[in-house]
Amino acid sequence: MSTDTKLLLLSRKVFSDYSLLEKYFEVCGEGASESIPRPTDIEYVKYLVSRGSTSLDHILNELKERLLERVNANCSLRATKEVLGVNLPESHSVALVSVQLAGWILEIAEALGVIKLRPLYEKKERT
Questions:
Q1: Are residues 12 and 18 in contact, defined by beta-carbon separation less than 8 angstroms?
Q2: Which of 3-12, 23-32, 34-43 has the highest mean pLDDT?
């Protein structure tokens, strides 16, 4: 993923800010190839939903755990330092990138018609 590549199919329904994930792909370049969403990730979302998982928190956590080993630790440390301005332990940094990666995968799954997400905030019209 090049530095000018954007996260495709991003609706921002899961997270409104993906700057950490964007920075991760920027600083990592080709080193992030293992982190790019795969068809098997979408299949896993289908599997979770077919098992009756409907809680966003539950599905995000399941995906995050599955993605931890695919996140480049050095890149996640650099990205969290640049975006958040703090040095985090490696496990925390990898977890933060993994959860944003999981959010992106859920948004891709929605764009492909696999699931339906509700927006983070729905504007209510005042009468």
A1: yes
A2: 34-43
